[in-house]
Specification:
Elements lengths: L2 E6 L8 H16 L7 E5 L14 E7 L5 H19 L6 E7 L6 E2 L2 E2 L1
Parallel strand pairs: 1-2, 3-4
Antiparallel strand pairs: 1-3, 5-6
Length: about 120
């Protein structure tokens, strides 16, 4: 059930978003240790974002998961997702924040119930 929600000020027009979604999905699943079938990636572009007083390419993301997150995994995820955004959207790693939420199953709804 990991859900990675990415917002960027980069336009996604003409971008191969499918490759970003599939690469992010497999990365999150592998590093957290969850099946890809339960990983959700949300990618929103052209979001007004100012970082450090400029509107140069930047991104903010939040990753919610029921377990699987810890300091070592979070560090690996931060690096891997930053690399994807840098290579696919030209967002420098230094202009990307990723916030992690480790939640309980009762706080996450799916299929008409909770986990």
């Amino acid at each position: 059930m990991p859900c990675l929600n990415i917002s960027t000020n980069v336009s996604l027009e003409g971008v191969d978003t499918s490759s970003i979604l599939s690469e992010a999905t497999s990365t999150v699943a592998k590093l957290i240790g969850k099946p890809e079938a339960y990983v959700m990636i949300v990618l929103k572009g052209s979001i007004p974002i100012s970082f450090g007083g400029t509107e140069q390419p930047a991104a903010y993301a939040e990753l919610v998961s029921i377990g699987g997150l810890n300091p070592d995994t979070n560090k690996k995820l931060s690096g891997a997702i930053a690399t994807i955004l840098e290579s696919k959207l030209s967002v420098p790693k230094s202009r990307f924040f990723l916030k992690f939420y480790d939640t309980k199953g009762s706080n996450f709804g799916w299929n008409g119930t909770t986990f």
